[in-house]
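Field log, afternoon session.

UNIT: design team B
ACTIVITY: writing a sequence onto a fixed backbone
BACKBONE:
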């Protein structure tokens, strides 16, 4: 109690507590009513989470699957696994299944505040926390039970643990968190290795990490990645569902690897095409569960600031590399 009183003497901590309260209330109030209805993948996730809670299988009777079949095309398993624990504790409801999105989104705001406070400053940290709190995209992904809505949160958790690691076991735990991030969304299979390798090269360059610490982090990542690599092998070569000890490597009815390719990237970059990159990045893509048409993902008025911020990040990154200083 004394520790809490000491922390709250700082006006910045008081301001952050207010922001955090706004973040929690804006994400948890009327959680069952908004977004209205249940999206089909959300319904699939709920059903699998219920089956995992009650029987230890997905709805296709695969025991402890490392990837879900969902409606034939697949769905990452981590959200359902977390939701299944809450279902066992509190029963099945829309509120309970959407609760992991709320918890991890709020945790993201806390870690973003602590990380930026440590490396940039208190004022910047407060502004950042406030902007995330009121960001339409973040509010929406905080109130909707989808596997992909854990990805941003787990990247922040992994990054925070990695940058604050001091002992060998800290890096081991961080590696587990990076590895678990692979189970949040299939897009991480491409994005995460690129991001992690670039991060390690940068941290080595500015002498903030050692080769040994990187290797310690990588070991659990590889171990956790192996079942997902097997999922790709099974589905690419059509080997059929495989049972390995207590886990299942499922074969999907539809393998969506064809969706990843240069042809689709070029199509999505064309602003004249339906659901193009720019529409999905800043607007709703015609889907009210992605973002409200009236506000977009980051508020339309803030788009110039997003572009300016991106340019500023590139400029500061180049300066940081030239000076060999961590930024």
């Amino acid at each position: 109690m004394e520790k809490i009183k000491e922390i709250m003497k700082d006006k910045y901590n008081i301001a952050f507590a207010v922001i955090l309260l706004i973040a929690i209330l804006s994400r948890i109030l009327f959680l069952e009513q908004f977004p209205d209805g249940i999206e089909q993948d959300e319904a699939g996730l709920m059903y699998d989470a219920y089956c995992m809670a009650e029987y230890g299988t997905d709805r296709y009777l695969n025991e402890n699957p490392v990837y879900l079949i969902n409606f034939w095309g697949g769905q990452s398993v981590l959200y359902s696994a977390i939701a299944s624990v809450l279902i066992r504790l509190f029963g099945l409801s829309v509120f309970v299944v959407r609760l992991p999105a709320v918890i991890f989104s709020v945790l993201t705001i806390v870690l973003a505040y602590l990380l930026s406070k440590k490396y940039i400053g208190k004022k910047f940290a407060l502004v950042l926390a406030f902007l995330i709190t009121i960001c339409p995209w973040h509010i929406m992904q905080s109130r909707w039970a989808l596997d992909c809505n854990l990805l941003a949160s787990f990247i922040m958790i992994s990054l925070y643990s990695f940058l604050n690691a001091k002992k060998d076991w800290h890096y081991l735990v961080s590696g587990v968190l990076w590895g678990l991030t692979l189970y949040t969304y299939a897009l991480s299979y491409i994005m995460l290795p690129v991001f992690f390798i670039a991060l390690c090269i940068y941290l080595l360059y500015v002498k903030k990490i050692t080769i040994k610490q990187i290797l310690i982090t990588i070991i659990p990542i590889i171990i956790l990645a192996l079942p997902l690599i097997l999922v790709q092998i099974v589905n690419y070569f059509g080997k059929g569902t495989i049972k390995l000890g207590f886990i299942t490597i499922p074969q999907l009815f539809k393998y969506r690897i064809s969706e990843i390719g240069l042809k689709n990237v070029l199509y999505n970059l064309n602003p004249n095409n339906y659901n193009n990159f720019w529409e999905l990045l800043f607007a709703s893509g015609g889907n009210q569960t992605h973002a409200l048409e009236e506000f977009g993902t980051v508020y339309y008025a803030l788009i110039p600031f997003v572009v300016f911020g991106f340019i500023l990040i590139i400029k500061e990154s180049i300066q940081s590399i030239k000076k060999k200083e961590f930024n």
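LOG NOTE: The longest helix spans residues 211-237.
NEXT ACTIVITY: expression trials, pending approval
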